[in-house]
Specification:
Blueprint (H helix, E strand, L loop, with lengths): L1 E10 L5 E3 L9 E3 L3 H16 L8 E8 L9 E6 L2
Antiparallel strand pairs: 1-2, 1-3, 1-4, 4-5
């Protein structure tokens, strides 16, 4: 079982990206799979969650690091957009 730190970024209708506080989540995601599959899983969860009430964010981006620290380049990234 892998542990991952991740950051969720959202884009509003004006094209501005933001994240809650710029820091990865306090509690790591426990996920049985490689980093890209874990990032895709988070993307799918947030697309379902944030799209209600409609229209939700213009886009979301997940950046994910393997292990206890979010240091350096992420091991996986994924995005989703309404367009």
């Amino acid at each position: 079982m892998g542990y991952y730190r991740w950051v969720l970024e959202t884009q509003d209708d004006d094209g501005q990206w933001s994240r809650q506080d710029g820091a990865p989540t306090q509690n790591p995601l426990e996920y049985d799979g490689p980093p890209q599959r874990a990032a895709n899983h988070l993307r799918d969860v947030f697309v379902r969650t944030l799209s209600q009430p409609a229209p939700g964010p213009q886009a979301i981006r997940i950046r994910l690091w393997e292990g206890a620290d979010a240091v350096g380049e992420p091991q996986a990234e994924t995005e989703w957009s309404r367009e």
